[in-house]
Amino acid sequence: YPSGKLAVLVVREAGRFACIVQEDGASGAALRAVFQSTGRSTCYHPNGAVWIHMDTHGGQYLDQAGNRVRTWTWPNAGVSPGPPVPLSPIFISLNRHVGVRIVGQDKITVSFLAMGQQAKFNVGTRAQGRDVDRPPALAEEQLLLLAFRIRMQQLFDKLRGCLTFPSNEQWDKMKPPTYLSSQALKITQLCRTSDVSEEVHRLVRAIING
């Protein structure tokens, strides 16, 4: 981003990839989208709610309250419950710099525009069938980095709370912001679906939980 913060990260390992979009927020790098070569992908509303979720069968589009706006199935999805529902092209703006365009299962584009320059990432895939259950290519180092960022945000939030409410009694009553709890949950979910050891999974949980 023009602020110097990381906007889009692509991780490749063993022929698989994951593309991660982070927010340019003052409170830290919140996750806005994760695209996996296994066919699973999720975009999030600014409030942390799921916006778009896709797998090898199709996808769904939801509003910020969690209500389903539309669903679709991919042409090569094979057997699916009910009649196939075609996809109408979708374009969403995750923020003023990053947009996502979905035209087909293998035609999903993340576009980044800032300071007169543009970069595009094709994150579509033809993954189908059993590939949906394969783990995404998220590196251990990246998961740990995301966990440390969340922990730093938690500490900064606690520091702000201490400055705002000097009384120890008030500290005990304070709860972490909802967006931090949501981001922590997303990281632990990524650990479960990534090809990382249980030791790394435990370390990520320990970092987030302090």
UniProtKB/TrEMBL annotation:
Q: Which InterPro entries does the entry mention? A: FAM194_C (IPR029281)
Q: Which stretches make up the FAM194 C-terminal domain?
A: 1-173
Would you tell me the protein name for this molecule? ERIP6 protein
Upper lineage: Eukaryota, Metazoa, Chordata, Craniata, Vertebrata
